[in-house]
Specification:
The protein has ten helices and eleven strands. It is an alpha/beta fold and about 290 residues long. Helix 1 packs parallel to helix 10 and helix 6 packs across helix 10. The longest helix is centred in the N-terminal third of the chain and has 21 residues. It binds guanine (GUN). The site of guanine has 9 residues, from strand 4 and helix 6.
Length: about 290
């Protein structure tokens, strides 16, 4: 039989339809939400994410202003562009595509973004507000995961969620969001990482597993209990001569085997991926509403 496969594309499309209504309402008042995007270098994965963001903004009727800087751009170049966007009234959201080249201090760049335009939710002010339970822009991939769970009928309240991976982009924020005493959260959370001894000991106790480790087969069938819900955030390229690109995308979970034990599972691609940009669009609408006191 196997698990129900959670259709991220379908859920993302549902949310985008809801947002379209809001964007139409804003446009009727003369408000066009505008996103400023900064990409440094020419990493193919980052380039394709940025292209997808531009397309999504266009389809939604948002304005987007994309800047691609060379991989040799200095921190000052990036900070100058951020400053320009902070002061540009047409821009109400700023997205600096991560990771940045090694010679750039990511924390300094994220700190320079006006917290009121931080639609990525990575500014320490927004992360701090989220942790203490105040209203804030929420990081897009973690917020997308909460939406996937909620819209798939998965109850998080009282559930034991095991998060694998402690990145600032996914693991740390999603763990903190899920432990909030709030709707779509209120879980008991265990955060595992590369320092965890005996990962399987923890994953076997999980009602819900969220894997954002960046390594294929981090979670295999022997590591999960029957009926678990699995959210796979991994996007890994593995060589495959049968594909014309020479590679295929796999997640961090052994999908085919884990699917046989799980109640629900996200595929890669088509699971978490489509949710990140969707939740960015959600934050863009929120930001435009706040800026215009709608
Ligand atoms: N790179 C991968 N995920 C993200 C994200 O959520 N935000 C930004 N800015 N860069 C990313």
């Amino acid at each position: 039989m196997g698990a129900k496969v959670i259709d991220g594309k379908q859920i993302a499309a549902e949310i985008r339809e809801e947002l379209k209504v809001e964007v139409t309402g804003l446009r009727e008042r003369g408000i066009v939400p505008g996103l400023g995007v900064i990409l440094v270098g020419a990493d193919p994965a980052s380039e394709s994410y940025v292209k997808a963001k531009k397309r999504a903004c266009g389809n939604m009727g948002l304005f987007s202003d994309d800047h691609q800087l060379s991989a040799e751009a200095t921190q000052e170049d990036i900070l100058a562009l951020v400053d320009q966007m902070n002061h540009d009234p047409k821009i109400n959201g700023i997205w600096v595509q991560l990771p940045l080249p090694k010679h750039i201090d990511e924390a300094v760049v994220l700190l320079a973004i006006d917290p009121d335009k931080d639609v990525d939710g990575f500014h320490p002010i927004n992360l701090g507000k989220m942790i203490v339970g105040e209203e804030a822009f929420l990081p897009c991939t973690p917020n997308g995961i909460l939406q996937l769970l909620f819209r798939s009928g998965v109850k998080t309240s009282g559930a034991h969620v095991v998060v694998v991976g402690r990145s600032n982009i996914v693991g740390k924020p999603v763990a903190n969001m899920l432990l909030q005493k709030k709707e779509h959260a209120n879980a008991t959370v265990t955060l595992c990482h590369t320092g965890t001894k005996d990962l399987a000991h923890f994953t076997r106790q999980a009602d819900i597993i969220i894997v954002a480790a960046g390594r294929p087969n981090t979670v295999t069938a022997d590591m999960v209990k029957k009926g678990v819900v699995v959210i796979d955030v991994g996007v890994n390229r593995v060589e495959d001569a049968r594909h014309e690109r020479g590679y295929r995308l796999v997640g961090d979970v052994d999908f085919e085997a884990v699917k046989e034990k799980a109640a629900q599972i996200t595929p890669v691609p088509g699971g978490v991926g489509p949710m990140t940009i969707t939740m960015l669009l959600f934050n863009m609408v929120e930001s435009a509403k706040r800026a215009n006191q709608v």
